[in-house]
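Hi R.,

Here's the chain you asked about this morning:
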Amino acid sequence: MPGEAISGPSKGRPLPVLDPVTARSPLLPFPRPQLAAFAAAFALLAAVQTAAPRPMLLAERFLHHAGWAEALLLSAWAAFLTGKLLDPRSLVPWRRRLWLLFSAVFFAQLALGLSGAERFLMTGKLHVPVPAVIAGGPLYRGEGFFMPILFATTVLAAGPAWCSYLCYVGSWDLLAASRRRKASALPRWRGAARIGLLAGVSAAAPGMRAAHVPGPVAAAAAVAFGLAGVGIMVLLSRRTGAMVHCTAYCPIGFLAVVGGRMSPFRVRIRQGCTDCGACTVACRYDALRPEDVARRRPGGSCTLCGDCLKSCRGGFLEYRFPGLSTETSRRVFFAVVAALHAVFLGVARI
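And here is the predicted structure, written out as tokens:
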């Protein structure tokens, strides 16, 4: 696919053509999206390293100033990952790999913390690793708003991609759903069910606080909620090929897709689509039903994962960002999610 030549300032001569996948230029040996991801990740991690009241980067907890080396390594990982996500041939497998990697790192740190190595815990205090606790925990405790702030900031930056790149349990649902080659449509009441669960969590947490329910009892309720979600993955996601936990059960997923509407990133279907239905069976989030395809935009459960792009034989699915071309929108989106992934690897822990 040919790149676009841009007129240069000198004698109207065009600048060197950029590769549409990597945006590599002969005048700039380092691909620009990768460079942007490196810079964004390093800026965020440097802010954590310098401004946090206590060491947040894990290396800093073991060796003074080692946090800077960790920030550089994570930023380089963001740059590498951006290149993989920008390549249509490697987008789907590499998205799954980075998502599983984050989940593995997250829960490995939790396991080490539980074994007595408290430096692997964020504050030395244990919290239940269930996404619903991101909202319910602070409502019950009346404090501890770091994770809600991190979640909200991420949703503003990358929209609902939190659900397909950064959630520490969502990758489990993807593994379960991937046991079937094609995804099935889910009942239409799944959205209402998730809204009801969010309302229940939002009411139960402050209710338990008002009733002075002991912390261990509240934690047990959160664990039960999380285990029920794992059961849904095993029993329903495996059977349907759709991510039932993420689209019908997880209340934080609902907050991500609703809050994600404030983000300018979108996936759209260009005119000319033949309505072949290939993207419908490829979408694990039940966001490309035939009626969604007919109106040329995914449904409300879309998480911008990008899996559908490869399934579209005519290339009619694309990322959009106001004021940017389709290709630039794609580059910016993947640079953003790769940078956020690298930052989450460094700071997201229980």
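One quick note: The chain has two domains: 30-122+324-350, 127-265.

Cheers,
M.
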